[in-house]
Amino acid sequence: MGIGWVSYQIYDSLQAFSSSIAGMFASRAVLEGVGVGDAQASPTAALLLSVIQESVGRIATILFAHRVGTALEPECKMFRLAADVFNDTAMVLDCLSPAFPKTTRVLMLSMASVLRALCGVAAGSSKASLSAHFAKQGNLAELNAKDSSQETIISLLGMLAGSFVISRVTSHSAVWTSLLILISIHLWTNYMAVRSVILRTLNRQRANIVLSSLIGSSNLPSPQEASHLERIFERPGLLRWVDGRILGHCMIGVELSSILRQLPGAASRPSGKSRIYRYDLAPQKILGLFDKEFYVLWFDTRTRTAYIALKEGCQPRDQVRAWCHALLVARKYDLKGLEVPADQKTDYDAVPPALQLLAKTGDELSRNFHAYEDKLQSAGWDTTTIQLETRPRIRISLSE
């Protein structure tokens, strides 16, 4: 098993136990809300409510999976914890619903169904990714079977304990006190479970940590050390230095047109069914700068956003290099801007400052990147599986 499996399983069992008990409070509230115990309640109304909940839940499943499907594996830690936030919020809505009028109650229960659907997508996908991480000897099926059996046992114990608890906790104050305690335990144990996972693949956040450490001090953190520096909830696409300073944003895997629209003086006018673009900086200069690379990079100094277009044939090392280049450009710009001292004559003096920054950092990266790769592999990082892209795969092809 992978590193951290035992502690992950312990915390995962505790969270499943507390969630089972809290879920029984929510189920009792839902039954009360649909009219169990009320002689005037209609079975047809309860059935229609169930149909509404199922319908909105399935629609939410489809839309959420389409929206975040590519990001689920790279950000499996975040989505694993987010799934439980969704689920706990749904339980709170269920418990609140009996106190509201019928129309509002339907909306609240439907929203709870949507949140459970989001939980199902996020939890199922992230758990599959974590299981693949822990399965080190081709025993993924065995691991999933054991995990499913363990979860069944824990859920059964939780239901037995929950049956004892809910039969004795009946007042509103006691119910809410118990529910909030159980939800707090559930979220804390989930947080600790996710924290105990040590991943060796490079997603955007871990790439920021290890690459900025290499650039800044040549001291490369191991996967264990980097896991302590990770944030579970990190804003997508941030370029963050190892000291926590935000340098900008990066969008990797964009279309070439996304880069061209950010060039200085970019403007367009309609021409029949298409548009004609003009630029102050010729696109050929940028494309020529990255002629020998498998990516094209542009850094928009107005928004401090790096745009990376990946070419056909781009390999994992090329993606790491592209992200490293974006991080280096953002760091140089953060420290010095685009100022070029008059007494420093270089080969780039005739080049616009923004392009000059890309060229200089590209040369610096060419001198050091092979050493960076060797250090990454020596420290135990997986450089063959890169998880920097969180959107559908886009590759560009440039003809001669």
Layout of SSEs?
Elements: H1 5-33, H2 43-68, H3 76-96, H4 102-134, H5 140-166, H6 172-195, E1 201-203, H7 204-217, H8 223-229, E2 238-240, E3 246-252, H9 256-260, E4 267-271, E5 274-278, H10 283-289, E6 295-300, E7 305-310, H11 316-336, H12 353-378, E8 382-387
Parallel strand pairs: 1-8, 3-7
Antiparallel strand pairs: 2-3, 4-5, 6-7
Helix pairs in contact: 1-3, 1-5, 1-6, 2-4, 3-4, 3-6, 7-11, 11-12
Strand content: 5-15%
* Broad shape: elongated
Helix residue percentage: 55-70%
Number of strands: 8
Low-confidence stretches: 340-351
CATH class of the largest domain reads Mainly Alpha
**Number of domain units:** 2
At CATH level 2, the architecture of the largest domain is Up-down Bundle
CATH topology of the largest domain: Growth Hormone, Chain: A
What value does the Rg take, in angstroms?
A: 26 Å
What is the topology, as strand order, of the major beta sheet? 2-3-7-6
The ordered string of helix (H) and strand (E) elements is: HHHHHHEHHEEHEEHEEHHE
Largest sheet descriptor: 4 strands, mixed
